[in-house]
Amino acid sequence: MPTTKRLVNREISWLHFNERVLQEAMDVNNPVIERLKFLGIYSNNRDEYFRVRVATIKRMVEMDKKRDKLRKIPTSKILTEILETVEEQEKNFNSTFKLILEELNKQKIVFLDETDLNEKQGAFVQQFFKNEVVPNLFPIMLNSLENSDALQDNAIYLAVLLQDSTLRKNEDYALVRVPSNIISRFLILPSDDNKNYVIMLDDVMRYSMGEIFAPFGFDIYLSYTIKFTRDAELDIDNDISKSFIEQMSDSIKKRKKGAPVRFVYDNDIPANFLEKLLQKLNITTSDNLRGGGKYHNFKDFMSFPKIGSRKLVYSKLKPLLHPALKPGTSILKVISERDILLHFPYQSFQYIVDLLREASIDPKVKAIKMTFYRAARDSNVINALINAARNGKSVTVFLEIQARFDEKANIYWTRKLREEGVKIIQTLQGYKVHSKLLLIRRKEGGKNRYYANLSTGNFNESTAKVYADDSLLTANQNIAKEVNMLFHIFEAPYNPPKFKHLLVAPYYLRNKLMGLLNTEIRNAKAGLEAWVIIKLNNIVDEKIVNKMYKASQAGVKLEIICRGICILIPQVPGLSENINVISVVDKYLEHSRILIFANGGDHKYYISSADWMVRNLDHRFETACPIYDEKLKKEIMDIIKIQLSDNVKARLLNQTPINKYVKHDDMNSVRSQFELYSYLIKISD
């Protein structure tokens, strides 16, 4: 395990996380189509990793080589280790894919390629190609290509070698994009038996390539998949004559022309054809070339069609009703009487949409304010806000235009909301707003009363079906008024007020976390109750990690659930023997952030939008919200205990071997996501 004595390199730790995703594909206890989807998630994660993290490291290597001498681990060495780790994972990926295909065959789901089709299937494929595929094909002749800017990042292309069997025409070369962004990557073929036959869109194109190139005198078409990944860093133009939205729009366009950071190709491609491609695309050996199999872009397997037996996919769990939010009741009235904590996806996100709908037509509601980081493509939440504006409510939205890879969608929603009369708070250059906040102002008895929703996850009804998050609904005026203060900061961030209840980054959150850990250290030394339970997505901040090491050395017990990156090394004698770290990767993506401190017996509970990373604590607006309701504290502790007891999907972090599963006892197995659903059923009765 590579460390700098006390820490794991964050880039390597991320690869360990993605390996846990790959483990889910390898787990034969998972339904086989779900295993296929995990391959897609792994592939999609890796693509983004190369576009962002590897691209950054490459820039560091190329532009700042002198600094390498000052680094504990040279950047170039980290890059080498990344590529070696990815190569090793690729072997497991390929072998897993073969095993999954074999299992699918047993389940009567058969993948065919262009060489396997019978006459009936061939005719079906050709008709599909003419009707659905051809309108979306725009071939590029390689000899006419001036540079790679015309090619789409992260898309797959068929590099086609065109030949004439009579030798009257010289061979030629073309690039044809596989339009999987428009057409499903998977075509279900007609069947005369009880099997499901599937062909990849790539192979549909291979089978029918003559439809495009035969008119030009060619009759041999050899197609090889290629793909390159570009640097996704946005270069924002500081032209003061442009609005920030215009600057971001221009930057997104430039991203399409980012420098290549990775090039993958079919190993069967002839050497001279590959060399010609590399020259035309200006790809060098420093761009992480990798030969592979016939297929790339496995991210499309995330959308594999629902075919075959129901047992091949996870059974759907019906979202549970919250016992206090009965159908036909006013959500605002319930919140006015007690705090509500929702747990997605176990409970329905529809409650948030219903709350907004109620607020939009309630004559006493005067204003609604909301933050968005990633909105759903067809967002009912945003539609509810638009409806509120149409009903005469004052609606204010902060929509984070700088959310990576969602910039284009967020620009669209910003313009749409403005058209509907919604006030848009301008993006804060240099900072991102990552807090998940909803505020409703209602006139009651001639006075303003505030209702707030603070969540660990985005207000996104699509991701709420697969991301495990916690969402607090409260009319506690101490909290709700401070949410209102936060919105004032977003509009005028020059004179931030002091918060007594919310922990707010970039102003106070880091110092408050350090203070809470220092309190545990003092209490441990004084013989008082001292422990910490933390659930986060990523732990990267070195200052906080070092403080946790000091807490461990002082005798503070730290139990940590960390899904993703974790640079902390637990169970090191004299350093971290009082720290345990697990990661749970399962059916749902663990996304909630929960912080619990013993505090000498006066336990403190928080839910938060922030991971413990420099960017979250110092360069983003983040919020950690205290939980004051005693019943909700117990509920959170019950849930955390279930997750800490997981011995089916929990892995030990940063111990040898990497990603070793927590010791499993068949007689007392605990799969926390399933146990959590059962727990919520019980407390709903």
Describe the protein's topology.
Layout: H1 10-26, H2 32-63, H3 75-106, E1 109-112, H4 119-133, E2 140-141, E3 157-163, E4 172-177, E5 186-189, E6 196-200, H5 201-208, H6 210-213, E7 220-230, H7 244-255, E8 260-266, H8 271-281, E9 289-292, H9 331-337, E10 340-344, H10 350-361, E11 365-372, H11 380-390, E12 394-399, H12 407-419, E13 423-424, E14 432-433, E15 436-444, E16 447-455, E17 467-474, H13 477-491, E18 503-505, H14 509-525, E19 531-536, H15 542-553, E20 557-562, E21 579-584, E22 589-590, E23 593-597, E24 604-608, H16 614-618, E25 620-626, H17 630-644, E26 650-652, H18 672-684
Parallel strand pairs: 1-6, 8-9, 11-12, 12-13, 14-25, 17-22, 19-20, 20-21
Antiparallel strand pairs: 2-4, 3-4, 3-7, 5-6, 7-8, 10-17, 11-15, 15-16, 16-17, 18-25, 19-23, 21-26, 23-24, 24-25
Can you give a write-up of this model?
The protein has 18 helices and 26 strands. Strands 14, 18, 19, 20, 21, 23, 24, 25 and 26 form a nine-stranded mixed beta sheet that branches. Strands 10, 11, 12, 13, 15, 16, 17 and 22 form an eight-stranded mixed beta sheet that branches.
Largest sheet: 9 strands, mixed
Number of separate helices: 18
CATH topology of the largest domain: polyphosphate kinase like
Q: Indicate the multimeric state.
A: single chain
Q: Report mean pLDDT, rounded to a whole number.
A: 89
Shape type = globular
Low-confidence segments, given as residue ranges, are 234-256
| Rg over CA atoms | 27 Å
| Straight-line N-to-C gap | 47 Å
Content-based structural category: alpha/beta
The CATH class name of the largest domain reads Alpha Beta
Tell me what the CATH architecture of the largest domain is.
2-Layer Sandwich
Q: How much β-strand is present in the residues?
A: 15-25%
